[in-house]
User: Which sequence fits this backbone?
C-alpha cells in the first residue's frame, strides 16, 4: 500500500460526498447533516436520499465494474488497447437496445434487458468465432473477433437508426452516450449482485493473469492453460461490462484508461491492479457524473462523453510518462 | 375531419389513464405546476393557471409571461433533482419513452404526474380537458376547446369550395422529412384548404425520398424561414416545378409548429398562404 493509493481512497470519499452535496439544487453541509440525522426539509431529503444517493452508489459500482473489466481484458488478451467496448460488448448491447427502441419497446426496464441480451449474444458470438477459427490459442484471435463483431454491430445500428422514427433515434443516441440520470436503488441492487459475484472471482483469478502475462508457453509451463483461461476471463469480464451497460448505457473509456492508471500506481501484479482499477474507476465515474449534471445544469451532459473528456488528457499524460 | 372533432371525449366520459398508460392523479388543488412541453405550457396559461406554473422547458416561449417562469431544461430526460427542487405538486410531461424514468421518480417523490402526447388536434382537445380537470378549471378548458374549434371551423368554411392544391411540407432536409396524416400539421393543411401530398403516410413525421416528392409533384412547398427560403437557389430542389415557379410558402414555425392553443391562429395563417384573400 503506498501513499498514492491512500490518496486515491481519500479522493473517492471526497468526491462521493461532493456528489451528494452538489447539484443543480444546492444542499449545504448543515442541511446534508440534517438529511442524515433527521429534521431536514423534505424536498432536500428526497433529492439527497432518493435522487442523488442511488446515483452515486450506481456510479461507484459502474466505475468499479468497468475498471476491473478493462484490467482483466488487457491482461487476458495481453493487449493494452483491450477494453470491453472494443470487444463487441458495447456493439451487441447497443444493437439490443436500438432494436428494442425502434420496435417501439423503449420502456427503460425492457431496454436494459434487451441491452444485456445483446451484449451476451455478442460475447458468445466472439467466443464462437474464436473457437471456430481453429487457430492456436492466440489472444489476437479473440481481439479480432471482438473488433469485427463490433464493426458489424455498428453497421446494424446505422441501418436501424436510418429508418427509425426521430424519437427512437434520439433515444438511441442518448442511450449510447450513457447516463446515470435515472438511477434507482433497483439498478444498484442488480449491478451490486453481479459485481459481488464476479468481482471476487476476478480477484481470485488474478494469479492466472500474472501467468498469462509471461507469455503463452510460460503460462502453460506454470500449469495455466492459456486458451481456456483467457476465454474464461474474457467471459467473466464481459459479463461485468454487460451488466453495467444494462444499468446505464454505454460509458466508454473507463475500461481502457483506468487499468493503465492502476498499473502506473501499483505495478504489474494483477491482484493489486484490479483492486486499484476498481477504486480509480469508481472515483472517475462518480466525479464525471457530478460534472455531467452540474456543468450545464439544468441540462445533463452524457456521462460517456464526460468520462472521455476527462480521461483523454489524463491518458495522454500517462502515455508521455511511459515513453 | 369533422369526425375527429366529434370524437373528442365528452367531459363526463373521461379516460382514466394518461398517454403513458399511467392512472391520472386524483383531482386536488395544484398550486405549483411544472410543465415540460411547450404545448401544455400554452394550455396551462390559457386555462389561467399560468401564475401557478413554476417550471417550463427551454422551448416554452409563448405566451410571453411564460418566459418569466424558470427554465428547467429541454423537457426530455429532465434533470430529476432540478424538477423536484422546484417543489411542484404536479408535473406535466411529454409522452416519450425517454421520460418514463422521470415520471416514476416524481411519483416516488409524491408528486402527481400527467404524461400527455399531443400530435393531433383531437389530442390537443383531450389534453386541454384533462389539464382543465387537473388544475380545477374545467369550465375554462371547455371555453378554450370551443374557441379553437370555432376558429378552425371558420377557416374550414372560408376555404370550402375552393380548389384544393397539393402541399408538401418540408420539416427537415437531411434526412428529408415531412408530415403524415398523424400530425396536426396535416390536419391544419387540410382545414386551410390544401391537400397534404403525403397524407397517405400515417406517422406524424415520416422520412421520404426526394424522388417520391418529385413524382408527387406538389403544387406548393411549405417550410420554415430557414429551410424553405434557400430552396430557390438549390439546383436539386429546382427540379421541382413548385420551386422553379416560385410556389414556396414560408410559414411562421413558432406559430404553426406547435399543437397548442394557437391552432386556430395557425390555421388562419396557413389559409392566408394557400388561399390568399380567403380570410380577411
Assistant:
Amino acid at each position: 500500500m503506498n501513499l498514492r493509493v491512500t490518496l486515491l481512497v481519500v479522493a473517492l470519499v471526497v468526491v462521493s460526498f461532493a456528489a451528494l452535496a452538489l447539484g443543480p439544487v444546492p444542499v449545504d453541509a448543515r442541511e446534508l447533516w440534517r438529511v442524515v440525522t433527521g429534521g431536514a426539509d423534505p424536498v432536500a431529503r428526497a433529492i439527497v436520499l432518493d435522487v442523488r444517493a442511488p446515483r452515486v452508489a450506481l456510479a461507484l459500482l459502474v466505475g468499479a465494474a468497468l475498471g476491473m473489466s478493462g484490467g482483466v481484458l488487457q491482461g487476458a488478451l495481453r493487449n493494452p488497447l483491450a477494453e470491453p467496448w472494443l470487444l463487441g460488448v458495447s456493439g451487441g448491447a447497443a444493437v439490443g437496445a436500438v432494436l428494442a427502441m425502434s420496435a417501439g419497446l423503449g420502456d427503460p426496464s425492457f431496454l436494459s434487458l434487451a441491452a444485456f441480451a445483446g451484449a451476451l449474444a455478442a460475447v458468445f458470438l466472439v467466443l464462437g468465432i474464436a473457437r471456430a477459427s481453429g487457430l492456436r490459442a492466440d489472444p489476437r484471435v479473440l481481439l479480432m473477433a471482438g473488433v469485427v463483431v463490433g464493426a458489424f454491430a455498428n453497421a446494424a445500428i446505422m441501418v436501424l437508426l436510418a429508418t427509425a422514427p426521430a424519437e427512437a433515434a434520439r433515444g438511441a443516441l442518448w442511450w449510447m452516450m450513457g447516463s446515470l440520470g435515472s438511477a434507482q436503488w433497483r439498478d444498484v441492487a442488480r449491478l451490486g449482485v453481479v459485481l459481488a459475484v464476479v468481482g471476487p472471482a476476478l480477484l481470485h483469478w488474478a494469479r492466472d493473469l500474472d501467468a498469462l502475462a509471461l507469455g503463452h508457453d510460460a503460462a502453460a509451463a506454470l500449469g495455466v492453460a492459456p486458451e481456456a483461461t483467457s476465454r474464461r476471463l474474457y467471459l467473466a469480464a464481459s459479463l461485468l461490462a454487460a451488466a453495467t451497460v444494462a444499468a446505464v448505457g454505454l460509458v466508454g473509456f473507463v475500461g481502457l484508461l483506468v487499468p493503465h492508471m492502476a498499473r502506473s500506481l501499483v505495478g504489474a501484479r494483477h491482484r493489486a491492479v484490479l483492486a486499484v482499477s476498481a477504486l480509480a474507476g469508481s472515483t472517475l465515474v462518480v466525479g464525471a457524473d457530478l460534472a455531467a449534471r452540474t456543468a450545464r445544469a439544468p441540462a445533463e451532459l452524457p456521462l460517456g462523453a464526460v468520462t472521455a473528456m476527462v480521461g483523454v488528457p489524463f491518458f495522454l499524460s500517462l502515455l508521455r510518462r511511459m515513453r | 375531419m369533422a369526425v375527429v372533432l366529434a370524437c373528442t371525449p365528452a367531459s363526463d366520459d373521461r379516460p382514466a389513464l394518461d398517454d403513458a398508460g399511467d392512472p391520472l392523479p386524483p383531482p386536488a388543488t395544484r398550486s405549483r405546476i411544472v410543465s415540460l412541453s411547450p404545448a401544455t405550457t400554452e394550455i396551462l396559461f390559457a386555462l389561467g393557471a399560468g401564475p401557478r406554473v413554476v417550471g417550463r422547458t427551454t422551448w416554452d416561449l409563448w405566451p410571453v409571461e411564460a418566459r418569466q417562469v424558470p427554465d428547467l431544461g429541454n423537457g426530455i430526460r429532465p434533470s430529476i433533482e432540478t424538477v423536484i427542487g422546484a417543489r411542484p405538486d404536479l408535473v406535466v410531461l411529454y409522452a416519450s419513452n425517454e421520460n418514463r424514468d422521470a415520471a416514476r421518480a416524481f411519483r416516488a417523490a409524491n408528486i402527481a404526474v400527467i404524461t400527455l402526447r399531443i400530435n393531433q388536434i383531437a389530442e390537443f382537445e383531450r389534453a386541454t380537458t384533462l389539464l382543465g380537470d387537473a388544475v380545477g378549471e374545467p369550465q375554462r378548458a371547455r371555453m378554450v376547446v370551443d374557441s379553437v374549434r370555432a376558429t378552425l371551423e371558420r377557416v374550414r368554411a372560408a376555404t370550402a369550395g375552393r380548389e384544393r392544391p397539393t402541399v408538401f411540407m418540408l420539416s427537415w432536409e437531411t434526412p428529408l422529412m415531412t408530415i403524415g396524416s398523424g400530425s396536426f400539421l396535416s390536419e391544419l393543411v387540410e382545414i386551410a384548404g390544401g391537400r397534404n401530398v403525403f397524407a397517405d403516410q400515417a406517422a406524424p413525421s415520416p422520412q421520404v425520398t426526394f424522388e417520391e416528392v418529385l413524382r408527387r409533384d406538389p403544387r406548393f412547398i411549405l417550410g420554415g424561414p430557414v429551410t424553405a427560403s434557400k430552396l430557390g437557389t438549390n439546383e436539386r430542389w429546382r427540379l421541382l416545378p413548385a420551386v422553379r415557379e416560385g410556389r414556396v410558402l414560408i410559414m411562421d414555425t413558432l406559430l404553426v409548429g406547435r399543437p397548442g392553443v394557437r391552432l386556430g391562429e395557425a390555421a388562419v395563417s396557413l389559409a392566408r398562404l394557400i388561399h390568399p384573400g380567403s380570410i380577411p
In short: Chain A has a mean pLDDT of 88. The domain at 3-322 of chain A is CATH 1.10.3470.10 (ABC transporter involved in vitamin B12 uptake, BtuC).
